[in-house]
Amino acid sequence: MSTTTHPPHAQEANMHLLRQAGISITLPRLELLRVLQEAGKALTAHQIYRCHLDAGHDVPLSTIYVNLKRLEDTGIIHRIRLDNDSKSLYCVSTDASPVRLVCKQCGQLLWVNDPRIALLLEQVCQDKGYALQGYGVTLEANCQTCAPGHLPS
Ligand SMILES: [Zn+2]
Asked: Which helix (H) or strand (E) holds 146?
């Protein structure tokens, strides 16, 4: 488990996120965001449920699903559908960098800060006659632990 405590300003930032998205600020939603941010990786709904229990919050799984859906609809949370079964992984889409790299097997999450991506996306927009205003990209992949053999070149 993470040993870092959730700083109060993170809670305020999350309240701001919910307000901006035009949905009501509720404790279960704030708690959900806190769990995902502290995990530092993408989690399944069941793992989120376990984290709630570990923190002493008995939130029904159905409530977690309802709030995940709501937060996904507003774009605050990104959902990654897994190939092999009906499970999904969830991560906060507003963290650190607009480019996220998620392992589809174990949920490991990396934020990518590569200026080449911004340059490329700007170029793509320009070619279409658009001015880029922002972006969020999730790269779904397999990490080296889950798919050994893909060594960095
Ligand atoms: Zn992995």
From this structure: none
Domain boundaries along the sequence of the chain: 8-141
CA of 19 from ligand 1 middle (Å) equals 34
Q: What are the residues whose beta carbons fall under 8 Å from the beta carbon of 24, sequence distance 6 or more?
A: 18
Q: What is the pLDDT tens value at each position of the chain, 153 positions in all?
A: 444 555 667 889 899 989 999 999 999 999 999 999 888 888 999 999 999 999 898 889 999 999 999 999 998 998 888 766 678 889 888 666 778 888 888 888 888 888 888 889 999 999 999 998 888 888 888 888 988 765 665
Tell me how far apart the alpha carbons of residues 143 and 49 are, in angstroms, rounded to a whole number.
24
Amino acid identity for residue 27 in this structure: L
91 is in an annotated binding site: no
Which pTM value belongs to this model?
0.72
Task: Identify the CATH class of 8-141.
Answer: mainly alpha
- Beta carbons within 8 Å of 118's beta carbon, 6+ residues apart: none
Q: Are 68 and 76 in contact (CB under 8 A)?
A: no
- Report the separation in Å between the CA atom of 15 and the middle of ligand 1, taken as the mean of its atom positions: 31
